[in-house]
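User: Can you help me understand a structure? I only have the sequence.
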Amino acid sequence: MSQVHHTTARALMRRLAVEQAECRIPSLTAAIVRDGRTAWFGGRGRVDGAAPTAATQYRIGSITKSMVAVVVMRLRDEGALDLADPLERHLPGTPLGHLTIAQLLSHTSGLTAEPPTAWWERTPGVPAAELIDRLGLRELKHRPGRRLHYSNVGFALLGELVARLRGTTWLKALREEVLDPLGMRDTTARPRAPHATGYAVHPWADVLLTEPEHDADAMGPAGQLWSTPHDLARWAAFLGGQTAGVLSPGTVAEMREPVIVDDGDTWTSGFGLGLQLSRAGGRRLAGHSGSMPGFLATVWSDPAEGVGVLFMANTTSGMSGTLLGDLLDILDEHEPRLPEEWRPVAADPDLLAVTGLWHWGPKPYTLRLLPERGLSLEPVGGAGRASRFVPQDDGTWLGLDGYYAGETLRVADDHLDLNTFIFTREPYDPAAPVPGGASDWHA
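Assistant: Let's start by predicting it. Here is the structure, written out as tokens:
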């Protein structure tokens, strides 16, 4: 199961072997996904006396949340809910009903991290009705929308929201709408053979403690699922845009947009809608980590490079934290992606005539023609507001990104009208309809 060269595979396996040996992990698997397919898989350690394979199950913990979030986004795309809806509109009877669905998805609701039960990851769960009855305003730890505060409870509520709106369990909805269509048939609520046993490794001796595993019931949407490297590779491809119709690529891209960051101005980690985000080594990654007693897992996707990476391990703690970044670095070093070939495209002569230099007041911009009649407006020198635009049926262009996302661009012979801002061929061209007028330049 390798599409990489032998030397690349050897370097990747060595990095995996170092992680397993030095971090004392009972078993460890990892995979790289490229262009929607598994390009490399590696396994070290032992599961029931044999090396783990791409079909070996591990518990994936909070990666479950990202899958539940997809069902919520499907409901949004169908019109069954709006992300700005308060929870009360769809899940009445909780004192936390003023929290919005978007806040729950992005961990900005201010809800407590853990439920008011016994340590939920190590004990049998309680039904959703009982959990909701236990929740009160005391579980609200921060003003909603103020900051990122990771909340397992929030996804328990989203799971119940899915169950109410679908008229079934969150798990059945997830199975029918996401897992089966993506071919993830080895992603299950409870383990099936072959699966790894969850262990804690003693900090001062090379001995193991078997960790408990239970049905989390109402807390299941926060971290119940088990999966395999094969299935999680398919999930990495999905997050990168290979959606198989489960969601539109545009909706997955929306989930990857940052809603909140975790570390202020440095912006190296944060959350979108149900997805963790990371910026590292020049990459912008989206995915999720997972942790349950006896297990660790993480999956990342880099849509810009068409690559994904994941690991699954049966240990409670002890990973280095650099494994996945190192694997991507090795791939880049040994097999850097070639840029797409440049090819000329047919151009509308009328559009070609409006390309070139324009000015917003005295500031110069360039307007470039993109494929499919798109336009790109960028400041000369790179500093300033840049956006891409796509044509609309009424002859205008709609902003895709940057400051002008969602705004309307109108193109005339002698000026551009971008949401009331007038761009002219010459700085403040007096012949163009510049608001406030324009007089002669002077010393």
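Now, to help you interpret it: The chain has eleven helices and 20 strands. The first strand starts at residue 27 and ends at 34. Let me know which part you'd like to focus on.
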